[in-house]
Amino acid sequence: MSSKESDRFISTQKTLDILYEMSQLLNAQLDKETLTTCVRMIESGVNPEALAAVIQELRRENSALAGRAPASAAPQR
Q1: Does residue 55 fall inside a structural domain?
Q2: Residue span of the structural domain in which 7 resides
Q3: pTM, whole model, 2 decimals?
Q4: E strand or H helix at 74, and its extent?
Q5: Where does it sit, as one GO cellular component term (predicted)?
Q6: How far is CA 38 from the centre of its chain?
Q7: pLDDT single digits (tens) 23-55
Q8: Helix 32-43 crosses helix 48-68 at what angle (to 10 degrees)?
Q9: Residue 51 burial by CB count (10 A; 0-12/13-18/19+): exposed, middle or buried?
Q10: Following DSSP, what letter does each residue of 29-54 receive, concatenated?
């Protein structure tokens, strides 16, 4: 990896770290992998407001499904 590529990688990592800290402060509940995916989608032209709406809807659906799951369906250890 060239010095320029290395500098770019470090800069990208620092930016992601800052975005992650901001997401933590805002209680966005996004892990670094999900946040990275969201940033890449936005950089590719996805509308940020539409992406946020999709994430919120997926969370609502997940909560609804979790609330309907019978107790016996819980994974056994």
Answers
A1: yes
A2: 3-65
A3: 0.72
A4: none
A5: mitotic spindle pole body
A6: 6
A7: 999 999 999 999 999 999 999 999 999 999 999
A8: 140
A9: middle
A10: ---HHHHHHHHHHHHTT--HHHHHHH
